[in-house]
User: Fold these one by one.
Assistant:
Number 1:
Amino acid sequence: MTTDIATLPTGNIDAYIGGAYQIPILTANEERRLAEQLRDYGDMEAARRLVLSHLRFVIRIARGYLGYGLPLPDLIQEGTVGLMKAVRRFEPDMGVRLVSFAVHWIRAEIHEYILRNWRIVKVATTKAQRKLFFNLRSAKKRLGWFSREEVEGVAQDLGVKPETVLEMESRLANQDLAFDGDDSDDDEGPSAPAAYLPDMRMEPASTIEREDTMTDRRRRLLSALNGLDNRSKTILEARWLTEKKQTLHELAQQFGVSAERIRQIEKTAMKTLRLQLEV
């Protein structure tokens, strides 16, 4: 292993990117030889060299998704996962370079990451919505809402219904809003929900309802426990109702049975309690 394939720095993203661009690009013959070693012999060092030599392409693709407001290191990490999947599936006899084959896998992992993390509420769930999510921005020719003609044009270009375009445009126009707001003094933004939603926790009727509910639950639990035989009751109390819970093996020694038998008794007693509490 040469110094070109040395471990990349991970403490700083600029140092990581700089290190990735220092790794030489493989020639077609080198790439084919390494891919064959991985395919035929499961050579992990060959796989590592294939991945590292293509990190610059992952970085280049990841930078194209910075407009979604997600951290570049995370985008690069997800893209690298896609690259690893591509390396594992790459077939050198197909006559295609790895970089061409891997682009799909790199983008797919980055897309999945963006869809999981871009918003608290998922904006794209169906296949048509996912397609729109990554094409709608580039399809806009101006700021503001689409006209009817633009909606129909985008729908035709992307092969989706006009209604789907309108729904996704509305979703992308909305923003997540923190319950307590932020720390800025900007009075022009929308009010945080904490400023206008009432706090019902200390409202007298709600307080009484919670106390009555807890009292009823305790009463029913004690009644259900008293309906168990002494051994089952002791096991449940030792396992769930004390600060220092006993293990199955400790209870097995206490009752002179196996730990599996204690587990069975516990399971049966818990089932009995649930049935009585659901009445």
Number 2:
Amino acid sequence: MFDNKHIDNDTFDYLRTLENEAKAGRFYMLPKIHKTGNPGRPIVSANSHPTEKISEFVDHHLRPHVKELPSFIQDTTDYLKKMESLNPLPSNTILASMDVSSLYTNIPQDEGIAACEEAWNTRSEKNSPTECLVTLLKLVLENNNFSFNEKHYLQIDGTSMGTKMAPSYANIFMGQLEKRLLASAPYQPLSWFRFIDDIDFKWTDSQEHFNEFLQHCNSFHHSIKFTYESSIWRK
């Protein structure tokens, strides 16, 4: 990219990791203290990993596209504003939420890369060509080596929680998936908003159609599955 003048000298120097400074990722678990049994959340620390700064560069080019997703939620204030825009809700509204099960590790890499490539191709200005960004993205995904208990491993599917581009990458992938999921659904929710892997939607159709919609969501993709809760029941 430097030779082709896609990045300047300062960016080139920043993205490089010197050989004597590079480290493998470190695997550890964060306990989910809000859940029964305190299950662990797997994290791979990318500090000083050769792809750490490359991942940050990729994230810089992904984040603007995340904000353009129809389902995008910035924060609590943004969520409250969007909920206010729906008022008054019909009296038969079902309040529902869904959570993607282990999203990061269940994103097929080919589908995640394709979703990001499609997003980058929509840019009007391409100072960093799409093919270069895709190559950098693949470097992050395909070279996530880490150590645990003095043994070394290489992650071969999904992406790790710990690399900087992971949230934006997951958002872009989910944006593409939910677009197709909703377009093919036999019945539609009144609203659909998402914060990475947490989805909030309002349902005003019948409970029978609500159940069919949930079944559709969980049969749509081979590795992306949902747990859900609602004002009528949970599973």
Number 3:
Amino acid sequence: MARVFVYGTLKKGQPNYSHMISGAHGTSQFQGRGLTVEKYPLVIAGKYNIPFLLNKPGKGHRIAGEIYDVDDQMLQFLDEFEGCPNMYQRTPVSVEVLEWENKNSTSAVENILECHVYSTITYQPEWMHLPYYDNYDSFGTHNLSYVLRESRE
């Protein structure tokens, strides 16, 4: 099992969450909620309003997200879904656990975890000047709703 931190459209209540729970692409188990230990710029960019975590530690905000344990099949699906390694790169990030799903879990004693996160080092320079978010919500007040792949031109 691998540990993954999701901050965008794969979170509960977001447009691509169904991929995390359908079982068609492997298994994932929600572990809890957390915040990145370091600050990162999280922007919404492009004509499809995609959330991007720019791999520029130290800038931006601590990012809120969800922690999942995923099997190898799900990790491979997520790599393909996220366009890894071209669009996003899967990199390790330290996450402070804010809330455990199962407080009786043996992992629940850990406060800082290392997780895989999909971030990018390949982006338009002007993205550094976009608003930075600490908690992505496709339906937020920014009015930049994510455009599902099947709805794109």
